[in-house]
Amino acid sequence: AEDALRQAQKMEAVGQLTGGVAHDLNNLLTIVRSSIEFLRRPNLPEERRIRYIDAIADTVDRASKLTGQLLAFARRQALKPEVFDVSERIRAVIDMLRTIVGSRIRIVIDIACEHCFVEADVTQFETALVNMAVNARDAMDGEGTLRVRVDSVSSMPAIRRHAGGPGRFVAVSIGDTGVGIPNRLGHIFELFFTTKEVGRGTGLGLSQVYGFAKQSGGDVAVESMVGQGTSFTLYLPRTARGIAPDAEGDRRGSRYEE
Ligand code: ADP
């Protein structure tokens, strides 16, 4: 009976998953279909014709982006954990973050934990940073500050009981000064939950962040204030390598603007 229940739950999850994509794709197909209908009209002014063709091209691009992301998600490879220095990795991807948010957004890097090592899949870690940076950019509407902070903390918010001494976790925060998250805060990590318009948002980003965090023995937390901004914090267990006898000993710290 337990197997049957698990099977049923699995089928329900798959149903929700495919239902979400089918819904988004259907909306996009509707746009293509009606644009074609408009194009069929006789004596259509040239300028209108161009507009409908552009709409079709744009919509098809969005649809293939959606399926591309879905395929990437489905094909997710098994995690290949390796030990790496978190701050070093972040410095290595700053140019990429700069490209994502654009030149008008300030990027402030705040490293309070030098030589903090974790054991996790590097590519997935970078993908999580990208996903959070994309969301931060979308929340800021072209102007604001992206704050990237690395710190070592004694516990993850959700499981304070398991606090295991100072510096047990590396906390990587991506903060923005964007619109904030009004309500339904509890839904944002769900697969396919998005408030973005059809084709722009897929609702896959934070699912990846969440899945990566959990599979790496960590967690992700969010704090947000409407009109002020949002901050996501990714917690990863710190590995033995890099932990000084006095675990806070290497918190020399550096803070600078990119
Ligand atoms: P997507 O970005 O495709 O919508 P995500 O899973 O990355 O999917 O995000 C889900 C939703 O969470 C977004 O649509 C948005 O409503 C909300 N969200 C995520 N990050 C932020 C942020 N930094 N500021 C405001 N809202 C956010």
From TrEMBL:
Parent-protein residues present: 622 to 879 of 1038
Protein name from the UniProt record: histidine kinase
Annotated ranges, domain Histidine kinase: 20-240
Domain of life (superkingdom): Bacteria
Organism in which the protein naturally occurs: Microvirga terrae
